[in-house]
Amino acid sequence: MLIASQMEPTYARRVYPCFDEPAMKATFNIRIIHDPSYVALSNMPAIDVSEVKDENGSLWTVTTFNTSLKMSTYLTAFVICDFDYVTRTERGNEIRIWARKEAIKNGYLNYALNITGPIFSFLEDTLNVSYPLPKTDLVALPDFGAGGMENWGLMIFQEASLMNLPSDEFTSRKAMIALIVSHELGHQACEWFGNLVTMNWWNDLWLNEGLASYFEYLGATFVEPKLSLDKIFYAHVVQPVLREDSEIARSLSESEDKIKGSFPLMSLFDNITYSKGASITWMLSGFLTEKLFIRALTSYLKEFSFSNANQDDLWTYIQMVIDAQDEVQLPAPVKQIMDSWTCQNGFPVLTLNLTAGTVSQEQFFNKENRKSTDSYNNTWIIPISWMRNGSSQPLTWLDKSSKMFPEMQVSESEYDWILLNVNLSGYYRVNYDQLNLKRLARLLENDPKAIPAVSRFQLIDDVFALTDFGYVPIETALELTKYLAREDELFIWNVVLLNLIPDSLESTLKNHEVYPLLKKYLLKRMLPIYHYYAGFIRQNADALEDDYFAQAYLEKLMATACWLGLQDCLDLSSELFAKWRDNPEYKIPFLIRRTVCCYGVAVGSDKEWNFVWERYNHTDSVEEDEDVLLYAMSCAKESWLLHRYLQYGLSDTLFSSNCTSVIILHVVTKDIGHRIAWEFVTENWPLLSQGYGHELLHDVLKVMGRFVKTDVQIQELQVFYNATLEEDEREAITMLLESAKLENIERRKLLIKVANWLEKNVDD
């Protein structure tokens, strides 16, 4: 048994009577009465442990904690557990990490313990503050709703976020632990974020979380210097939120009145708050310079510690630092610049005309489904970092809707090129004119390294996003992929593949005439990077343990090579699979296990399938293994195996452990599996609906939507769900399928364009 609390944002009121608002700070005296075989933890150290008898004469332990510092209700916390801990003292602060006894005994928390102290000290030194509590506990729970929670002095995490097997040298796992720990420590040690200085009200939550996310990356790189911070930051933070932000009608900082109403506070804990907050903080630190940014933060923390602040207070402090020096000149007051980013929805796209040297801005929105009533007249004050022909130029600003930059006019020479928003330092996209794009494409083919890696990543991501939103034709984006045979960065390949072959389209693309062309065009370009990594996999996969991106993205590259039918990839999968079949103790390299198991089954026969089924049934292994095995069995290429798999899925053990739905969802995404899975669901619905309810049907129908192209196909699905769903659910699903159908029709048109372009370029 185990008890732990999570008060943020508004649950403290369910534990004790209080004015549960972040600005109402108080000191807390906590006392917990609990079973003597358990230990009680809270924000402060225990100062007294005594015994008490209840009316039945049973003994209980009473743990009394020291009075807390002045703090917000949402940061109070307690845990009652029978865990063990590992400990170490850093600068007089006793750090303990608590977890299940066997996890402590096996050393699974040693890595987290090794980095917690150094990250603490790094943050204290950077921000010139000292941590005000005598101890810090980190608790790893087997199950927890969030990744981590920054309760002052008692941080709570999911087990997975803190544990690392001592034998696991892979950077990616350590990187994740380092990131989560630095995020929560950022809240602790110092930042305005959260504990010392709290937001006045939840509408400024982004200050808390955006800054914690920014320092999370600085802290993690400090303890794991092998991580290439900027690449990871763009690939994991900026790029995904740019994709999301254009669809979401919410600004970073909403007005206090709006959030005071019946606004669902939990909805603020989203990617806009965390990732957009971090991206904008990164941009701010970039144009101020890190030195001035940290200087301003330090004075701000001193002024507001133990009290509350809002974003304008921070802008005031930054303004004071800017006014006191003359190296950095800003085109407007800090508040005006930052309000344009935090108080408006979305973000800008810059459109260039380099023959004339003009740059204009507008809100980035989807031109395909823009309603004429929408007004998009926002303007931002935009810092532009840029380079010309490989050399960096002084930072410049676009502070109105359009502006002439004579220094950006390009000459007749095709060797004269310009690159904006170098290394994605600003939170926006760039739409180049055809002339400059041609020059950049040519440059990539001749000397890709002339453009920094993060900028190559961004060029490709921007041009595909511009295609999706109707700013430029798909052919423009494809021109930038010609150079890829010379691209050796996995994180760039990853963004190309996510755009060309999204996971959700694999099964539909396979049946389209674009497939053989794509195969020929892409394989030719993938071979160099594929062989580079396949060599490691064959000889010494452990050599990749410091290659963060191999751990994050090699799987997608391999899976694509196999999906495109690259013989060497299929052979490699069979080889490794056979090794594993001959000796179940053999470990398929963790980086590509999912792909190897899948294609081992796909190119094999029922023998391979049965082997995986058998491994699944007597596996004492961790959850990720089970998931890999369940997925692999859905890769079978023979219909009867998939039929049988679904039948097996109805057995009691699988049914009770929620795996039946996992199996169905794996099978329904496969090109030969979607009809089989649909028939199976309709035939077994009475049983399935008891176990899984309508959620399963929703998920299955969502996937079926990828395959509908005609009304007749929708009607066929409708016959079934009209009989099983309530009226409002039926309407929602019908709308979902209608829009899926339109998307599929649009996509067919797009794929015809892609196919035509590939026809012309496939032999280049």
TrEMBL record:
Domain Peptidase M1 membrane alanine aminopeptidase span(s) in chain numbering: 111-341
Active site residues per record: E184
TM regions (residue ranges): none
UniProt xrefs under InterPro entries: Aminopeptidase_N-like_N (IPR045357), Aminopeptidase_N-like_N_sf (IPR042097), ERAP1-like_C_dom (IPR024571), M1_APN-typ (IPR034016), Peptidase_M1 (IPR001930), Peptidase_M1_aminopeptidases (IPR050344), Peptidase_M1_dom (IPR014782), Peptidase_M4/M1_CTD_sf (IPR027268)
Cofactor: Zn(2+)
GO cellular component: a single term: membrane
Site positions for Transition state stabilizer: Y274
Residue ranges of domain ERAP1-like C-terminal in the record: 417-737
Pfam families cross-referenced by the UniProt entry: ERAP1_C, Peptidase_M1, Peptidase_M1_N
EC number(s) stated in the UniProt entry for this protein: 3.4.11.-
UniProt GO BP: peptide catabolic process; proteolysis
Alphabetical UniProt keywords: Aminopeptidase, Glycoprotein, Hydrolase, Membrane, Metal-binding, Metalloprotease, Protease, Signal-anchor, Transmembrane, Transmembrane helix, Zinc
GO molecular function annotation: metalloaminopeptidase activity; peptide binding; zinc ion binding
Gene3D superfamilies in UniProt: 1.25.50.20, 2.60.40.1910, Neutral Protease Domain 2 (1.10.390.10), tricorn interacting facor f3 domain (2.60.40.1730)
Location in or out of the cell: Membrane
Binding site for Zn(2+): H183, H187, E209
rRNA processing keyword on record: no
Cofactor binding, per record: Binds 1 zinc ion per subunit.
Aminopeptidase N-like N-terminal domain boundaries: 2-75
Topology relative to the membrane: Single-pass type II membrane protein
PANTHER family found in the cross-reference section: AMINOPEPTIDASE Q, PROTEASE M1 ZINC METALLOPROTEASE
Family: Belongs to the peptidase M1 family.
Protein name as catalogued: Aminopeptidase
Organism name: Leucopsar rothschildi (Bali myna)
Upper lineage: Eukaryota, Metazoa, Chordata, Craniata, Vertebrata
